[in-house]
Amino acid sequence: MAKKVSMGLSKSLLLKGFQCPKALWLTKRPPEFVLPERPDLEAKFRAGTEVGILAQQLYPGGVEVPYEGLTVPAQLAKTKELIEQGADVIYEASFSFSAIFVKVDLLVRDGDQWQIHEVKMGTSVKDVNLDDVAIQHYVLNGCGLSISKSFLVHIDNSYVRQGEIDVHQLFHSEEVTTQVKVRLQHIPDGVRELRETLRQLNEPDVDIGPHCTDPFECDFIPYCWQHIPANSVFDLRGRGVNKFDLYRRGVVTFDEIPLDQLNAKQRQQVEATLHQQDTVHAEGVQAFLDSLWYPLYHLDFETFSAPIPKFDGTRPYQQVPFQYSIHAQQVAGGDAQHFEYLAPPNVDPRRELAEQLLAVIPEDACILTYNQSFEKGVLRELAKQFPDLADALQQRIANIRDLMEPFRKRDLYRWQMQGSYSIKEVLPAMVPELNYKELTIADGSAAMQAYHTMCAMELGEELDQLRRDLLRYCEMDTWAMVKVLEALHANIITQ
Ligand code: SF4
């Protein structure tokens, strides 16, 4: 007998269903398919909770209805009790109507009505946020509360921290009452349709589409996209092609794509893949190599960012450097000497990092980065923060060259690069023996997460191990650049 599925819904389930009814159905009836873990979601959830708690200070003196430690009926009862007792501000107030459960970040009494304040860690109001508030409005109305106004409270990324966080500057409250009322009209029908979908015993017939990533990346992508082979229209890089349009017309694999619909770079990607062809424009590569000089310092930063700025003088989501790796070569193809810096946890790393970097890299050295705009941006922020170091930092910025350049221009293209010039694709194509597979930390976002974890850790072996992992990862980034540069030289010699 088919398992009975609960018709109970929450705000996040409804939003998931509005994005794709099949996603809601699959959440309630999980397929026999192992979905990969999403560690990024856990980190986002933690950051969101921190932001939500801080935003409570916008309306101090409220009472919280906690999620942890209370059953749903207890949360509903506690909210009812607080309202009856005359509470003016309730954090995480809980309501249920028509088997839809919602929690309101900040519920503020407004005469005999109420205001809804929904806190988001983004920096602007998005359509999905309006739906989010409309669902709350619908449920609260159903519970007999009259809503006077609705607000979306989001991060103002022009705020610069000085001392204690000023919540009135960090957050921007935008009144969205009118937009929410428009969306509110569609909620009852939307809920009814989703419940009809949920009652179906068979998986809804919804094909893949732009809705798989908009507004959120759907958890079920690995399941629903299983039929898409490698080297499909979805692997085409660059703009100008409507990939879903081709897919719907039955054009899926590279050999089915009409080449006249592609731009020159996409055509090169497809043809190079189909015929396993590489391209080298020796003159372009040589011009790039001629633009470098020695000593040459390969440089890579790791940075973290957070919605709540951690240190004075930083903004929300500012990329704050906490680590660098440098490999220095005195002559082309010569031995590479390694230098590194990794900040201790919870200490503003910028001054020390900048001073050490300036001490390591001579004024007249060539500095090689991969994707120079990132490293230049970090150095510019440091120059702005420390005027006494600004000239020296600007000098280093002027000496930066970009190893990505010959790949971005396709002066050297290997078919395995799949149309990309990101180091993730370039490295295995240029230096197949080198990879990040053995490393515990294997990409920039994992490194950023590791920094946040490090700041929450006690001193001890676990912290030491994490620091070793971070150092190994960042060292690999600049060592990879040494090897890619070596491979570029070798390609010219063999031409
Ligand atoms: S992957 Fe796409 S089609 Fe599948 S459930 Fe998610 S949104 Fe729907």
From TrEMBL:
UniProt-listed InterPro entries: DUF2779 (IPR021301)
Start and end residues of each DUF2779 domain: 297-422
Pfam families recorded: DUF2779
Name of the protein described by the UniProt record: DUF2779 domain-containing protein
Native species: Desulfuromonas acetoxidans (strain DSM 684 / 11070)
